[in-house]
Every structure is written in structure tokens, then in C-alpha cells.
């Protein structure tokens, strides 16, 4: 099967942080499928803040970079970048490499959901199975987390996009296991939902990870010093944004009912409230 995977912020080792397309592509390759990842030529999740070349391969995983203007911040420039990507998807048949076979399956991942519109047209054109992969619930994330009004123009646009995607996709997958009820209430038909959680490559766990940045080397040295003192070191490797609730975890760990010495937890909690929240993400 030939898969076209549209992920605006697709990454991989040495390329970008969002590596789900990379790992899925490698897993599909082991089962005999071919995948091409269509990524924006520029996005803020790239390791090197320069536009990508039109084509590149990372450990056998193929990427085609669609033209999208550089931007900074979270304003109009980023929205225009999304528009560039969607226009490039719409005109993809006229610009794809000649050796790129027509797709049997098209997957649209929704760090930004708008590519579902041109991708649905491509699916009709090629007779391909269309899957919508939900990362964030739009516009619910905007409304519940950011406090955006449901009547905000962007919230209305994403609500229509959500409605369109649930109706046009043959299958809707999500890392959010409890999302089906919400989706069914917003137009998703029966037997169209599948939960595909994030995972980890066990092979990579056996590889020694050596930090290469100054911050990484400093952190590694501090962790080694704490271990030498006999301390228990707990690491939160994920984001520190409002949706992640790290403050609740720290409060729970600091309760008097928790067993053991709570002073290291409280010291870390104090550090987090003073410094950690200013460097979220």
C-alpha cells in the first residue's frame, strides 16, 4: 500500500521534534508499505530554523517539503504559513516527483487541521482511503485551555473544519482514547473511530543518549551529582504548558500523606514555580 501522510510539522532525527511520522513510516515499511511524508518547508518545530530542501530522506523515511513561508511567533505569519501549506497540498498533483505513485491511503494529522480540505479532494481524485488523525480537539482546546470564545472567528473556522473532517474521513484516529464521545457529538459516524496512542521505540531505549548541547551537558552533570549524593531523581521530559498539569502532580507529591522525605520534591516544586513556568514547552 502506498501512503501519503500530511503532517505540517513532521520531524525526525536531526530534522524536528515531532517524530511520530518518522516512527510510523518505519513501522509501515517493515510491513511492506511505502510512505511519503508531506511537511511544510518551514515551521517552528524544525531543529535548524532554515527552510527544508524540496526532498530529503532520513533513515529511509521519505519527506517532501511543500513551500510555506518562514514566520516567527504565533500570529498572522503562522496562519499564512498554514495557508501556504494547504494551497501546496491542493496543487500537489501538478508538482509531485514523477516517481511518486498515486496513494492508496491519505492520512491528515491535525497539529493544524486545515489540510483536511485539500486532502479530501485528493482522496476523491485518487480514490484513496482518507484518515483524519486527531492530535488536538479543535476548537475545544482553544476554548477550554486558552479561554477563547466559541464565537471567535478562528474558533468558528476550526469548528467547521472539525465537522467537515468527521464527515468526510473514512476513519478518524486519535491519540486521545476518550475522544470518541466528543467526536460522535460533533458529527462522527459509528465505527469510524480508532485509538492509536503515542508509543516509544524499544530499540532506541537500548541506545546510549549522549547530550550534545550546552544545556544538555549541564543537566547531565547536575543529574549525575544528585545521583552521587544518593538522591532519587525524577524527570518530567514533556511539555510544561497549562494542559499538562505539572503543578497538580507536584502538589500531589508534596502532600503530607506521601511517604518518605518530601524535601527534594518541595525544593523542585519551588524551583518550578520560580523558573520552570517561564520556559514552558
Tags for this model:
281 residues; Rossmann fold; eight-stranded mixed beta sheet; 14% strand
Structural overview:
It contains ten helices and eight strands. The chain starts with a strand and ends in a 7-residue tail after the last helix. α1 links the parallel β1 and β2. An eight-stranded mixed β-sheet has the order 3-4-2-1-5-6-7-8. α2 runs parallel beside α3 (116-126) and α9 (246-253) packs antiparallel against α10 (263-274). 37% of the residues lie in helices and 14% in strands. It is α/β, with parallel strands linked by helices and 281 residues long.
Biggest beta sheet attributes = 8 strands, mixed
Q: How would you classify the helix and strand content by structural class? A: alpha/beta
CATH topology of the largest domain: Rossmann fold
Total helix count? Answer: 10
Residue fraction in strands? 5-15%
Strand order of the largest sheet: 3-4-2-1-5-6-7-8
The global form is globular
Amino acid at each position: 500500500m502506498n501512503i501519503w501522510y500530511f503532517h505540517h510539522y513532521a520531524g525526525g532525527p536531526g530534522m524536528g521534534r515531532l517524530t511520530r511520522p518518522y516512527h510510523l513510516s518505519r513501522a509501515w515499511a517493515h510491513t511492506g508499505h511505502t510512505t511519503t511524508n508531506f511537511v511544510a518547508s518551514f515551521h517552528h518545530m524544525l531543529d535548524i530554523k532554515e527552510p527544508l530542501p524540496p526532498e530529503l530522506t532520513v533513515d529511509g523515511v521519505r519527506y517532501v517539503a511543500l513551500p510555506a513561508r518562514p514566520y516567527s511567533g504565533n500570529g498572522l505569519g503562522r496562519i499564512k504559513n498554514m495557508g501556504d501549506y494547504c494551497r501546496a497540498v491542493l496543487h500537489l498533483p501538478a508538482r509531485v516527483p514523477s516517481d511518486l505513485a498515486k496513494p492508496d491511503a491519505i492520512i491528515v494529522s491535525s497539529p493544524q487541521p486545515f489540510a483536511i480540505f485539500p486532502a479530501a479532494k485528493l482522496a476523491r481524485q485518487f480514490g484513496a482511503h482518507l484518515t483524519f488523525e486527531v492530535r488536538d480537539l479543535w476548537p475545544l482546546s482553544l476554548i477550554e485551555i486558552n479561554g477563547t470564545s466559541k464565537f471567535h472567528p478562528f474558533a468558528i473556522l476550526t469548528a467547521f473544519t472539525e465537522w467537515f473532517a468527521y464527515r468526510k474521513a473514512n476513519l478518524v484516529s486519535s491519540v486521545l482514547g476518550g475522544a470518541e464521545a466528543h467526536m460522535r457529538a460533533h458529527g462522527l459516524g459509528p465505527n469510524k473511530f480508532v485509538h492509536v496512542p503515542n508509543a516509544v521505540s524499544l530499540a532506541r531505549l537500548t541506545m546510549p543518549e549522549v547530550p550534545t548541547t550546552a544545556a544538555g551537558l549541564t543537566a547531565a552533570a547536575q543529574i549525575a551529582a544528585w545521583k552521587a549524593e544518593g538522591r532519587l531523581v525524577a524527570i518530567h521530559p514533556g511539555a510544561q504548558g497549562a494542559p499538562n498539569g505539572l503543578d497538580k502532580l507536584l502538589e500531589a507529591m508534596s502532600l503530607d500523606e506521601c511517604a518518605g522525605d518530601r524535601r527534594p520534591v518541595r525544593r523542585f516544586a519551588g524551583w518550578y514555580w520560580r523558573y520552570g513556568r517561564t520556559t514552558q514547552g
